[in-house]
Amino acid sequence: MSILERTRDGLRAHPLALDAVLAAGVLISMVAGSFVDPRAEAGPTWGVRTPSAPGLTLMALSAAALALRRRWPMAVLAVTTAFSLVDLVTADPRTPVTMSAVVALYTVAATTDRPTTWRVGILTMTVLTGTAMLVGPLPWYTQENLGLFAWTGMAAAVGDAVRSRRAFVDAIRERAERAERTREEEARRRVAEERLRIARDLHDVVAHHIALVNVQAGVVAHVMDKRPDQAKEALAHVREASRAALDELRATVGLLRQSGDPEAPTEPAPGLARLDELADTFRNAGLPVEIARADHGTTLPSALDLAAYRVIQEALTNVRKHAGQEARAEVSVVRVGTNVEITVLDDGAGDAVDADSDSGDTSGHGGHGLLGMRERVTAVGGALTAGPRFGGGFRVHAILPLTNHATTTAGGTA
């Protein structure tokens, strides 16, 4: 950093010192200007004159007042205007005391609003120019009076322009900072949404497999002594369900890995292609499940495919937990126009209130299953309804729209 830059930064950090330097510069300019006689004819001496002691005193006092122009701009303008009026009325020839009033007027215009600048600027120009024309020792039409009017008007205009530019720059900076904050908030919102999606995945996976493990563990405890072969089979199902749970948890948590992390999972998310495998896990747990598909070979986008799979998984998990030991479940996947409709029915005789509760019914009972299903279906633009069936059992019905999603069928593009 150069010496000039360091000096400028130091003066900006200490505005009072900067104003003192400005006051000293104005004083030097006024004193230098007071030695020039503008009414003298050009010659070898260039119209040199000697300023009077009262004139030097007025210049020193008005320049000293400028050191406080930032703190009290109106008061400094009033003081410098008063000194200028005294010089205009009494001095002959005049001294350039009005230079301090011009600087003070600029400060007022640069630090206040436009209406105030107009009022104060017009008042200052009128008072100084009117006094010089009507009361001063010079003729009213002299160029010095017109110059006084021009300088005060120019000071007000320049100060207002500087204030407008500062306001414009501040507005641009504020918009940039607001845009930066908006981008940060959007990034945080996306992170929160991603965490919520992963949490729903974890809930669906854990709830499904833990329910199966719980059922098979109950079977093991019941038949361990009398039918050890059946107990071994149930333990094998427990092992298979726990392994599947670990695999899906590993795949889901693997989505959080950063690029470059070792052994990132590449297994695709589950979908309707694994529906028969999903049904087999429930059949092994003692829940008869029938699958009926009439989706005409429709291949769903990954988001719809995962949502469909999770809805069926959560619905069957709730059937196994709440519908009773003798319950049966039916799953249908049907293509209807531009929608794929998924229906899960059961004929269980379990407590309907309990089933609603654990399914996440938002009518007043606890649980998160149904809430998670609704969020998944809503996220892809679909709709989900769930409730007790007439005559017993429970029904979950989801409509997943294919509109706005690229889907293909066995015969071509849907």
TrEMBL record:
<dbReference type="Pfam" id="PF02518">
    <property type="entry name" value="HATPase_c"/>
</dbReference>
<keyword id="KW-0547">Nucleotide-binding</keyword>
<feature type="transmembrane region" description="Helical">
    <location>
        <begin position="48"/>
        <end position="68"/>
    </location>
</feature>
<feature type="region of interest" description="Disordered">
    <location>
        <begin position="350"/>
        <end position="370"/>
    </location>
</feature>
<keyword id="KW-0472">Membrane</keyword>
<dbReference type="GO" id="GO:0016301">
    <property type="term" value="F:kinase activity"/>
</dbReference>
<feature type="domain" description="DUF7134">
    <location>
        <begin position="9"/>
        <end position="166"/>
    </location>
</feature>
<feature type="transmembrane region" description="Helical">
    <location>
        <begin position="120"/>
        <end position="140"/>
    </location>
</feature>
<dbReference type="InterPro" id="IPR055558">
    <property type="entry name" value="DUF7134"/>
</dbReference>
<dbReference type="InterPro" id="IPR011712">
    <property type="entry name" value="Sig_transdc_His_kin_sub3_dim/P"/>
</dbReference>
<keyword id="KW-0808">Transferase</keyword>
<feature type="coiled-coil region">
    <location>
        <begin position="169"/>
        <end position="196"/>
    </location>
</feature>
<dbReference type="Pfam" id="PF23539">
    <property type="entry name" value="DUF7134"/>
</dbReference>
<feature type="domain" description="Signal transduction histidine kinase subgroup 3 dimerisation and phosphoacceptor">
    <location>
        <begin position="194"/>
        <end position="259"/>
    </location>
</feature>
<dbReference type="InterPro" id="IPR036890">
    <property type="entry name" value="HATPase_C_sf"/>
</dbReference>
<keyword id="KW-0418">Kinase</keyword>
<feature type="transmembrane region" description="Helical">
    <location>
        <begin position="16"/>
        <end position="36"/>
    </location>
</feature>
<keyword id="KW-0067">ATP-binding</keyword>
<keyword id="KW-0175">Coiled coil</keyword>
<keyword id="KW-0902">Two-component regulatory system</keyword>
<keyword id="KW-0812">Transmembrane</keyword>
<keyword id="KW-1133">Transmembrane helix</keyword>
<dbReference type="InterPro" id="IPR050482">
    <property type="entry name" value="Sensor_HK_TwoCompSys"/>
</dbReference>
<keyword id="KW-0597">Phosphoprotein</keyword>
<feature type="domain" description="Histidine kinase/HSP90-like ATPase">
    <location>
        <begin position="307"/>
        <end position="403"/>
    </location>
</feature>
<dbReference type="InterPro" id="IPR003594">
    <property type="entry name" value="HATPase_dom"/>
</dbReference>
<protein>
    <recommendedName>
        <fullName>histidine kinase</fullName>
        <ecNumber>2.7.13.3</ecNumber>
    </recommendedName>
</protein>
<dbReference type="Pfam" id="PF07730">
    <property type="entry name" value="HisKA_3"/>
</dbReference>
